[in-house]
Amino acid sequence: MKKQIIIAKIGEYMKYIKENFNYLLFSFFLISIFFWFVEIGYSLIIRHKLVFPGAWYGPYCPIYGFTFFIIYLVFRKEDHILINIIRIAITVTVMEYIISFISDTFYHHIIWDYSNKFMNLNGRVCLEMSTIFTITGILSMYTIVPVTKYLYQKLEKNVTYINIILSIFMAIDMIITLT
User: Is the pTM here over 0.90, yes or no?
Assistant: First the structure.
């Protein structure tokens, strides 16, 4: 019975992704670019130095785009805020751990190290950053999602072309970065 429910839920998600692919890809790019700039601002304000985020050359951090994509799928505006906070906390923490693990294991590149932070897990995630990313995720769902939907509606006739151009640009950047 549970297996059938899970399969049905996956089917619903796949249908939703297929029907909204252009919007989701467009949002992925906007979020990846927006939070790249947010992280630069953070480094200037908090660290008092310019630190370019991410491992790629372009002005984007795909981890934010991927995480946003998953948060967008699990977030339910009609559900109680605490349920959504738990969903987002789990999503951002798991995504951060997975990205750190992949980067370290396969590319021998440590993107961040939280070993000196309170309540960290293998230096890959910590309570402080999970809390910050959870708050950011909640705020994003109520502030950034309406903006991405507005921009999508305004640019809808050109979104496919924008997505293609940005996909090509990001693919080239990924190839350069990983070689």
Answer: no
